[in-house]
Amino acid sequence: MCHCGLPQPFADCCGRFVSRAIDAPDAQSLMRSRYSAFCEQAIDYLCFTCSEKALEQNPRDEVAEFAQAARFVRLQIMDYEPGDALAYVEFKAFYIIADTLHCIHERSQFIQRHHQWKYDSGRLFEAADVKLKRNDPCPCLSGNKFKKCCMS
Q: Rounded distance, CA 150 to CA 96, Å?
């Protein structure tokens, strides 16, 4: 299964985009591939898929530091509004830092420039952090206990 949650292997799903073998055909595919890039710590791809405005707001060193610190465990697409040059994806990305489950809940705006989709901006929604205990169900939804799965 790909990091993004789709049933294909990473190489046949988001890996094609992260390796830049082909461009993401739409904003949702780009969103999924960016999530997978965080999982893979593919910082070059994350920067390449940002608009200039987004890259100014999210400098490469900060993106790299965050990707290295976080263990991403689940992506949930909440809504998708496709468009020809402008599209929106609302998602929840769950990640763990120091045995605490965090959630990025964002409505992201994507723009298409020169036939390539780019992350442009996002509106964050408040999401509560949860301190995980060893015997809690793992937030990756594997069915295992946290201590036997994603615990650091």
A: 8
Here the tokens at position 98 are 């120091």
CB neighbour class for 45 (10 Å; exposed up to 12, middle 13-18, buried from 19): buried
Neighbours of 37 (CB within 10 A): 25
pTM above 0.90, yes or no: yes
The CATH number of domain 10-148 is 3.40.50.300: no
Strand-strand pairing, 86-97 and 71-81? antiparallel
Give pLDDT, residue 151.
83
Phi-psi map region of 52: left, alpha, beta (phi>0 left; psi -120 to 50 alpha):
alpha
Would you list the domain boundaries of the chain?
10-148
